[in-house]
Amino acid sequence: MKKTPERIESLSAEYVLGSLKGPARRRFERWMMESYRVRQEVWFWEEKLSGLSGVVPPQQPPASIWSAIEQRLWPESNVVQMPSRTSRPGWLWPSWGLVATAAALVMAVLLVQQPTAERFPMLSGAIVQQDSTDPLWLVSESGQENRLRLRPVGAAAAAPDKDYELWIVPEQGQPLSLGVIPVGDNTFQIELSDEVRAALDKSRTLAISLEPQGGSTTGAPTGPILHVTKLYEL
Amino acid sequence: MMMEDASQNELMALLSAVARQDRKAFEQLYQQVASRMFGLCQKLAGQQELAEEALQDAFVRIWHHASEYHSDRGSPMSWMMTIARYRTLDLMRARKVRQTAGDEALNYAEDERAGPLETSMQMDGAAALTGCLDELSPVQRDSILLSYYRGLTHEELSTTLSTPIGTVKSWVRRGLQALKRCLER
Fold first, then answer.
1. Do residues B34 and B54 make contact, with C-beta atoms less than 8 angstroms apart?
2. Is B97 on the interface with A (CB under 8 A)?
3. If both were cysteines, with which of A15, A58, A207, B181 could B35 make a disulfide (CB 3.0 to 4.6 Å apart)?
4. How many domains in chain B?
C-alpha cells in the first residue's frame, strides 16, 4: 500500500484512536518505523487526543502496583528489601497516605469546579429506522440540566392527523410519556423530572409510538411502537 | 484543572532524571501521575484487574523508554497517558474484552455516578479540542468519543449504534478529518 498523504493522515488518526487493529495496526507500525513523516502525524494525534484524557477523574491505584513495578524492574534489590520492609512495616504507608490526601484535594477541586465546567453529554443515542443507515432523531442528554435534547435528522412527518410520541421504557411497569415530538429542523429539549430522569438512568431505553394528534390520551402508548432505542453512555 | 506549566516542567525534569535511571525520580513520577493514568486505564478497560496490569506495564515501559521522549511527542503528561492507553487497548484486544458501552459498561459506570465526563479537567489544548468536537456531527463525535474512552472497535461501534459497519467507519474517518481541519486552523 502506498503511503499517500491522505492515507498517512487517516491511518495515523485511527491508529491513535485505537480503531485500527490486528494486522492493519501491525502494518502501520512498520510504516511508523520507516518514516519520520508518519511518526510526526501519529504524534500530532497523540498530543491532540490526549486532551480528552484530561476529563477522566484520577483514581488512586492500589499500593500493591508500585511494589509490583519495583519487583519487575529490580527483582534482585527487592529480595534485599523484603526483610527490611517487614522491619519497617509503615514504610510504604506514609507516602501513600500523602498521595491519597493529594488525590482527595484534586477531587475536591474538581467537585467545586463542576457547576461551571463545560460538560459532554452523558447519554447519547440515535433513533434509527431498520434497514436504513441515517438516523431519524439524535438524542443526547445534558445531565446537569436534567434535559434531553432531541434533534430531528431524517424523520418524516407523521400521517396528517398523527403525531410521534416519545416514551421512556422503564425496567418495570408502564412506559412514561415524554410528550409529542416534532420532526422539523429545530433541536427539541425535554425537561426531565427527577423521577423520570431516574427511570431513564436505569433503563436507558426510549421508544417512539405513533399516536393521534396531540398524543396518547390514555397515558400509555395506543398506536404502534415504531422505534425502540437504547442510549449509550459516553 | 489546568495542567500548569510549572507541573509540566516538573514532570519534564523527573522524566529526564528517569532517562538517567534515577530510581527516586521514577518513584516521584509515579506518585505524581499514576492516579491520572490509572483513571484512564480503568475507564477504558472497565475492569480493575486489567487496568492494574496495564498501569504496571506502562510504568515499566516509561522506565525503559524515558530517554525516547522528546517535545515533538507532546507534553510529558500526554506522552505517558498515551503509553497507558495503548497498553490498555492492547490488553483488551489480546483478552478479547468485548466493549459495548451498553449494560456491561453501565454497570461499571454506576459506581462512579460523579461521571467520567462530568468533571472538566482541562489539559493544554483540551479546550481547543472540545471546541472542535462541537463542530462535528453528533454521530461523528460520539463514534470518536466511544472509541477513545471505551476502546470500541468498528464492529463494537456498529453494534452499539445499531448502524452498519461501513457507515460507522465513515463516521469515524470523516469525523477525524473534520477534527484535524479544525485543530489546524
1. no
2. no
3. A58
4. 2
Cα-based angle B86, B91, B97 (whole degrees, multiple of 5): 120
Mean pLDDT rounded to a whole number for chain B: 82
Same domain, yes or no, for B20 and B70? yes
Q: The domain that contains B19 carries what CATH number?
A: 1.10.1740.10
- The pLDDT, as a whole number, for residue A129 is 61
Average pLDDT of the residues in B71-96: 91
pLDDT of B26 > 50? The answer is yes
- pLDDT computed for residue A131 by the predictor: 54
Distance from CA of B23 to the nearest CA of A (A): 10
Partner A, chain B 106-145, Cβ-Cβ below 8 Å:
106, 109, 112, 114-126, 128-130, 138-139, 142, 144-145
Both B71 and B126 in one domain: the answer is no
Distances (CA, A) of B77 to B66, B70, B81: 12, 12, 6
Pick the closest to residue A111 from B110, B127, B118 (CA basis): B118
Query: What pTM did the predictor assign?
Result: 0.62
Residue B65 has pLDDT above 50, yes or no: yes
B135 and B49 together in one domain: no
Per-residue pLDDT tens over the stretch A25-77: 889 988 988 889 999 999 999 999 988 888 888 999 999 999 999 999 998 77
Cβ separation of A46 and B78 shorter than 8 Å?
yes
Query: Of the ranges A46-55, A147-156, A206-215, which one carries the lowest mean pLDDT score?
Result: A147-156
How many Å apart are CA A41 and CA A45, to the nearest integer?
A: 7
Range of the domain at B88: 1-97
